[in-house]
Specification:
The two termini are 80 Å apart. The N terminus is likely disordered. Helix 2 packs antiparallel against helix 4. The protein is of the alpha+beta class. Strands 8, 9, 10, 11, 12 and 13 form a 6-stranded antiparallel beta sheet that branches. A 3-stranded antiparallel beta sheet has the order 1-4-5. It has a two-stranded antiparallel sheet with strand order 2-3. It folds into 4 domains: 45 residues, no CATH class; 46 residues, no CATH class; 47 residues; 127 residues, Super Roll (Bactericidal permeability-increasing protein, domain 1), CATH 3.15.10.20. Helix content is 31%, strand content 20%. Strand 2 and strand 3 form a beta hairpin. It is elongated, with a radius of gyration of 54 Å. InterPro entries: Aha1 (IPR036338), AHSA1-like_N (IPR015310), Znf_MYND (IPR002893).
């Protein structure tokens, strides 16, 4: 288990997971050596770091004799170093070193204290923090289990996400002595089965007797006795009124050819429809839930000729219907067209005389089209 501890060191340290430098690293709470830039990197690297993560061993304390020996060696080295220097400088150095604890009087005093020291009473060891694994100056215990110890409220809060899985309130002494662990397998209720009772008829419900096989013979249904199912708007087979779709574009192509021969008089002469070409678009009749929808959106081109009965000369032109749709017809929108003719007078004549005649004929076709579904 790793715990995040923010380090106060300002020297950049390399992250053990992403190798980025971090000024305030997070250190492993066990070994105190692995450093990370964030908690995410610490969690990702834990699966590899936990194999080598070990608590740092505390160095043995140096005894007073070893300290005195080290001080004597340091004093001897200092005397040899200052033998050929200025006496005033040597005196200043010795005075400074004496203040730092390297004086012989200090050594004797420490040795004397060691010899005259009495055996110290058994002092209980300080509790270890369950989060940062450091000795607790002021011990805080878990208020539920009374076992987990922490050095501060911060460590207690950080460790709670792991400790709460095993934290349980201790049992009283009387209950603890009679405590038995619960079995993982639930026990069934013990029931006594009586075999001497009467079985009765219920036991024979499984007895099976084969029925007599009778060959199926269809019976003829008279026309008068047959049930007639009327389909509203749809085909005869669609009695339930489910989705039915019928393509009506061929009907429109055939019906628009009926415009051929349509003639109207105008100031520019007699305008006569000669042909209907380029019929494109979609036209469908839908039957959904016993209701019909008449959908069409087509465009086509009407060719016409213009001339007077007393003259053999005639001109030609075209009226291109851009959109004939069920939505525009229902709203009463004017028929959108593009007119092309050999002269401006023929174009104005087609706009004022031929287009209204086409609108009237197309309205009749729409009425006839809507009657097809009934």
């Amino acid at each position: 288990m790793e715990v995040d501890i923010a380090a106060a060191n300002t020297v950049p340290v390399q992250c053990g997971n992403c190798s980025d430098s971090c000024v305030k690293p997070l250190r492993c709470g066990v070994c105190k050596t692995a450093s990370y830039c964030c908690k995410k990197c610490q969690q990702e690297d834990w699966q590899y770091h936990k194999r080598n993560c070990k608590a740092a061993k505390s160095e043995p304390e140096t005894s007073l004799e070893e300290k005195a020996k080290q001080a004597a060696d340091a004093k001897q080295a200092m005397d040899e170093e200052l033998a050929n220097t200025d006496p005033k400088v040597a005196a200043q150095v010795k005075d400074m070193m004496a203040k730092m604890g390297y004086d012989t009087g200090v050594e004797k005093k420490d040795a004397q204290e060691e010899t005259n020291a009495k055996p110290a009473p058994n002092v209980p060891k300080a509790d270890m923090c369950k989060n940062c694994m450091e000795p607790c100056a002021t011990t805080l215990r878990c208020s539920v289990c009374k076992v987990a110890t922490y050095c501060s409220r911060k460590c207690q809060g950080e460790d709670w996400q792991f400790h709460k899985r095993n934290c349980k309130k201790p049992l009283p002494k009387a209950e603890a002595s009679n405590y038995k662990p619960e079995s993982y397998r639930p026990k069934a209720d013990e029931k006594v089965v009586e075999d001497d009772g009467e079985v009765g008829d219920w036991y024979r419900h499984r007895e099976w007797r084969p029925e007599t096989k009778v060959e199926f013979k269809p019976s003829k249904v008279d026309a008068e006795g047959a049930t007639v199912i009327k389909s509203e708007g749809g085909s005869a087979w669609n009695a339930a009124g489910t989705w039915e779709e019928k393509d009506m574009l061929p009907w429109w192509k055939n019906r628009l050819l009926g415009l051929t021969g349509l003639a109207v008089d105008s100031f520019a002469g007699k305008l006569t429809v000669t042909n209907v070409t380029d019929v494109n678009g979609e036209a469908q009749i839908l039957h959904v839930r016993k209701s019909s929808k008449y959908i069409f959106d087509i465009n086509f081109c009407v060719e016409f000729s213009c001339g007077f009965a007393t003259s053999s000369r005639s001109t030609s032109g075209k009226v291109k219907v851009l959109e004939l749709a069920n939505v525009t017809v229902k709203d009463g929108t004017k028929l959108p067209v593009e007119i092309s003719a050999e002269s401006d007078s023929d174009k104005r004549a087609a706009e004022t005389a031929l287009v209204p005649a086409l609108e009237a004929s197309l309205q009749e076709y729409v009425t006839e089209y809507q009657a097809k579904g009934n």
